[in-house]
Amino acid sequence: MVINKNTRLIISDIDNTLIGDAEALNKLFEELRHADNLHFGVATGRRLDSAVSVLEEWQVPKPVIFITSVGSEIHYAPNLIKDEGWKKHINEQWEPERLKKTLETFTLAMQPKLSQREFKVSYFVDHTFELWQPKLDEYLQQNNLSANMIYSSGKFLDFLPKKASKGLAVRYLANKWGLPLKQFLVAGDSGNDEEMLTSGAFGIVVRNYSFELEKLKNNDNIYFANGSNAQGILEGIKHFNFLNSSLMR
Ligand SMILES: [Mg+2]
After folding, report:
1. Tens-place pLDDT, residues 48-89
2. Does the bond joining 78 to the residue before it have cis omega, within 30 degrees of 0?
3. Which of 36, 108, 167, 185 could be stapled to 123 by a disulfide with Cβ–Cβ 3.0 to 4.6 Å?
């Protein structure tokens, strides 16, 4: 992957954003194929192996960046090398065992073992979550537990290290490569995309978004598309004139 000062990156969520409409997906990559100095990456709640396989299933050209497990891991193509710097960066005040123990009070349903990662502790919740979220916040504070709590699609509750999220991962990449966030375009549909959409990059929310993102409306840097899935991404690219954005500088 060659990065120079004019490189632009499109980082998209996978489920309900990139995939879902095969025809629009084709059109999207047809459009991206002609762009110079553009890299494509994904940011997903999925594990790396699961992200790779679902992208193959949908015949998505291989991304160069994989931000996975809700932003707690970063890997680079072609050999899927892990970013050890990111791991070091987020591994601060991360106490997953004590966190799990402390959360037992709330009798939350754990997500399957495969969804639990070194830097992610995951539960299932329901739509009532927002009602008791303040209580949970307070309880974690009282117990001196530092974690980034991310609620998504009305059912997933993920705890990550304080410094980890999809959005913080995107900022880390911008920093690492010395690129302005305005050279990043991100797309998503649900709560775990929120930090990425408000990171300072250009943001696209696809039409089929989850209610958690409603609060991002009326933000100049975030475009709410009329189209769903990849169709919405295509629309957003045009809205921001992102592929020709070098002309704007
Ligand atoms: Mg999604």
Report:
1. 999 999 999 999 999 999 999 999 999 999 999 999 999 999
2. yes
3. 108
Question: 43 alpha carbon to ligand 1 midpoint, in Å?
Answer: 9
**Residue 246 pLDDT class (50, 70, 90 cuts):** low
CA 26 to chain centre: 22
Cα within 13 Å of Cα(159), Cβ side: 25
- Cβ neighbours for 154, distance < 8 A, ≥ 6 positions apart: 126, 127, 129, 210, 211, 212
What is the CA(249)–ligand 1 centre distance, in A?
32
Q: 56 alpha carbon to ligand 1 midpoint, in Å? A: 17
Radius of gyration of the chain (CA): 18
Asked if residues 242 and 185 have their Cβ atoms less than 8 Å apart, the reply is: yes
223 in Cβ contact with 204 (< 8 Å):
yes
pLDDT for the residue 245: 62
**What is the whole-number distance in angstroms between the Cα of residue 94 and the centre of ligand 1?**
25
User: CA 129, CA 212: separation in Å to the nearest integer?
Assistant: 12
191 close to 213: Cβ distance less than 8 angstroms: yes
pLDDT score recorded for residue 13: 98
pLDDT one-digit tens code per residue, 184-235: 999 999 999 999 999 999 999 999 999 999 999 999 999 999 999 999 999 9
What is the 49 CA–ligand 1 centroid distance (Å)?
17
